[in-house]
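Morning!

This is the sequence you dropped in the shared folder:
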Amino acid sequence: MKAETAYHVIQALPEAEVARLYTMLGVQSALITKPKTSTKKKVLISDAEATEYLLRKLKRS
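The structure's back. Tokens below.
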């Protein structure tokens, strides 16, 4: 069996079975990569708000 085949089989296993497999292999902690959760993005201002902001800044100068 190739390592690629084993990798794909492990990826298809449920998390509980992966943990059990690592226990059977004697691995202390598995390096399982989980997708990062999306972080809150800063709210962007609209074009009109940006224009008003720039005009106010320019009038002060």
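Headline: The chain has one domain: 3-60.

More detail when I'm at my desk.
O.
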